[in-house]
Design brief:
The protein is an alpha+beta fold. The protein has one domain: Up-down Bundle (Outer membrane efflux proteins (OEP)). The protein is built from six helices and four strands. A hairpin with a 7-residue loop joins β1 (22-32) and β2 (40-53). α2 (58-124) runs antiparallel to α3, α2 packs antiparallel against α4 (199-220) and α2 packs antiparallel against α6. The longest helix has 67 residues, at 58-124.
Length: 387
Amino acid sequence: MHAGVGRHRAALGSSQAARTPQLGIAAGAGRAADPGVPAVTQYSAGLNLAYELDLGGRLLHERNAAALDVQAREQLLADARLLVQANVARSYLALRALDAERDIVCDTVAAYSETLSLTEKRARAGDVADLDLARVRAELAANEAEALALDRRRLELETALAVLLGEPASNFRLAPVAWATALPAVPAGLPSELLQRRPDLAAARSQLQAAQVRVGVAQAAWWPSLALTAQGGGVSSELSDLLKSGASTWGIGLLAALPIFDGGRREAGVNAARAQLDGSAIAFREQFLLALKDVEDQLGAIALLQAQGEASARAVSAAGQALRLSDTRYRNGLVSQLELLDARRTELTNRRAALQVRSAQYQATVGLIRALGGGWSADGGVRLAGV
């Protein structure tokens, strides 16, 4: 990507140089003879100056098109940076969500360990059957295995983060911490003008403008080319006299050229430039519609996830209350162990589901920030506190 920017900057420099006077040095030696006259050697040296008058604006259009090419490549590079930043944020938030989910599973493991101790005590007293003991051990082992699976997924995300940040994966570690990232509030009624900050859309616009300018380049081929030329130096039959005043020579001229018949080459060039313009216009429209869809998708997801999060919070509260009641009744011998295990399993499922909804809210918010080209604030950025 960087190489592409450098290549287009070099092309811009070349097109700018074409609009400046060209100065060169010329030197030569020749030997000629006429019939009956001894051969004579002549030496020449001097400066040549040439400047093309841009009658049809071809050179100016080429320079402007090259500048727009550079602008488009820089905007594509900015889009690539924005994509990497969004992926870093997504990976980091997913990792912190796994940390929080593992804490929930570890809490459940601790609760099952306590239940196992109580069940073993009752089994020794003959109050419960071996089947009840086996059930608790199975639930405990299953949650311990789930904690290890979360550790594996966390390691994968940690490695992905290292790659995105350009760090060696073997030396990159993020210690588990409490998930304290604040979710930014999305303002209502985001203006469509925010889409103009999207680097990919800006690049498509620059490419469209460059195609428009190149139509002018093709049309300028119908104008005559006109160049001013000047030269000065010396001509002498003796090398030692070349720089003396008597050997000096100079000249100035005007060179004009206008093709009369080119087999339709210029007309074909204009048609090709217009076809390129039509293609760029279609590409820009498609990019704009995709950008709108991207924003609408993320806004819709955020709204639905907000409602889903509220429902999940109610489910967690109800499941927690049911678990506390089941635990109390089990300790008093009023319900079976199977009912307690079912209540704990339901509470764990709801807590993890609520956490996954919360994680999806963060992912959708990052997606919206990327869809808007960096955020919705005046400075073009929204900071995720704690990231």
